[in-house]
Amino acid sequence: MGNISKRFARDGKVKSEIRLDDGRTITAEQRKKVYATIRDMATYTGYMPEEMKELMKYSYISETGSDYFSLSNCSVTTARLFINYIIEFCFRWNIPLLDHGLNRTDDIGKYLWQCLKIQKCAICGKEAEIHHWDAIGRGIDRKKYDDSKHRKIALCRIHHTEAHTIGRDTFAEKYHVYGIIYKE
């Protein structure tokens, strides 16, 4: 069963989307990730975890136009999107997580994109720089070179150095990450 919703873009135009519900509900692993992240947010902000959960749900609903949902029986997709939302919120407001965001994400591609956008290390969450997953080559002026079609990942200085030291494939296997083509 699907539903159609309307959202308004900043320019006032209607954006429509169709959501398909395949009947799967939130997994125990997704629920653990949500509650661990909400607990970290509550600890940092001073809210009670239950208050923080409701604030974040209403904030998510407000920004996305989705319907109210319960974390006891929402769809796998709603849970995944909500996890993405609260991790991005933590990045945006520098809310520390007790575990790395990489371990909390339910959508690695979206997580890597968020890390590039906010320039946080995909491995440890510290301030990051851009690591070119696809080598550009020596002698090229990187300030003038169009690298928009090259895969990238946001890494702190320590993990950037490690990626160069052990090599891309070993790094990818060790941390279960990869480079992505980043577009706003």
Description:
There is one protein chain. Helices cover 46% and strands 12% of the residues. By secondary structure, it is of the alpha+beta class. The strands form two sheets. It has a two-stranded antiparallel sheet. β1 (2-8) and β2 (14-20) form a beta hairpin. α1 (28-45) packs across α2 (49-64), α1 runs parallel beside α3 (76-92) and α3 (76-92) runs parallel beside α5. The longest helix is centred in the first third of the chain and has 18 residues, at 28-45. The chain starts with a strand and ends in a 9-residue tail after the last helix.
Percentage of residues in DSSP E strands? 5-15%
Please give the number of β-strands: 4
Order of helices and strands: EEHHHHHEEHH
User: Percent of residues in helical segments?
Assistant: 40-55%
- C-alpha Rg (nearest Å): 18 Å
Count of discrete alpha- or pi-helical segments spanning 4 or more residues: 7
Major sheet: order of its strands? 1-2
The major beta sheet can be summarized as: 2 strands, antiparallel
- Unreliable segments of 5+ consecutive residues: 1-6
SS-derived structural category: alpha+beta
Task: Please summarize what this structure is.
The chain has 184 residues and is of the alpha+beta class.
